[in-house]
Write a structure and sequence with these properties.
Jelly Rolls, RmlC_Cupin_sf, RmlC-like_jellyroll, Cupin domain-containing protein
Length: 116
């Protein structure tokens, strides 16, 4: 099912994620050729990269771990981190659940790959 993304509407991120207890990625807003999604992470996402888009994460709840080939980033609520296109990464919650916003091209390609 394709979700209709409302325009000129206030979107309550807390309401969108309330009661979500397993991985879920919800598109919230389209702007120009980009999308804002809220992601509820309860398990690691596989190693991947995006050949055609940078990807920006903003932590909202919990701590999001972003593994890169050469280091690990801990993103706490209110912090933002951008991963350039073509950079391998893997995301996961530190303590069972994290809620984050992602900003990227609406037509972002995701390529699964081996661990860094």
């Amino acid at each position: 099912m394709i979700r209709t993304i409302p325009q000129l509407t206030v979107i309550d991120v807390e309401q969108e994620t309330a009661g979500v207890s397993s991985y879920k990625n919800i598109p919230l807003s389209l702007f120009n050729d980009h999308v804002v999604r809220v992601g509820v992470m309860t398990e690691p996402f596989y190693w991947h990269y995006h050949p055609n888009s940078d990807e920006t994460f903003m932590a909202i709840e919990g701590t999001l771990l972003i593994d890169l080939e050469d280091r690990r980033v801990e993103l706490k609520p209110g912090q933002l981190f951008t991963i350039p296109a073509m950079v391998k990464h893997c995301t996961r919650p530190l303590d069972g659940r994290s809620v984050n916003l992602t900003f990227e091209l609406a037509e972002t390609e995701t390529v699964r790959c081996d661990a860094g």
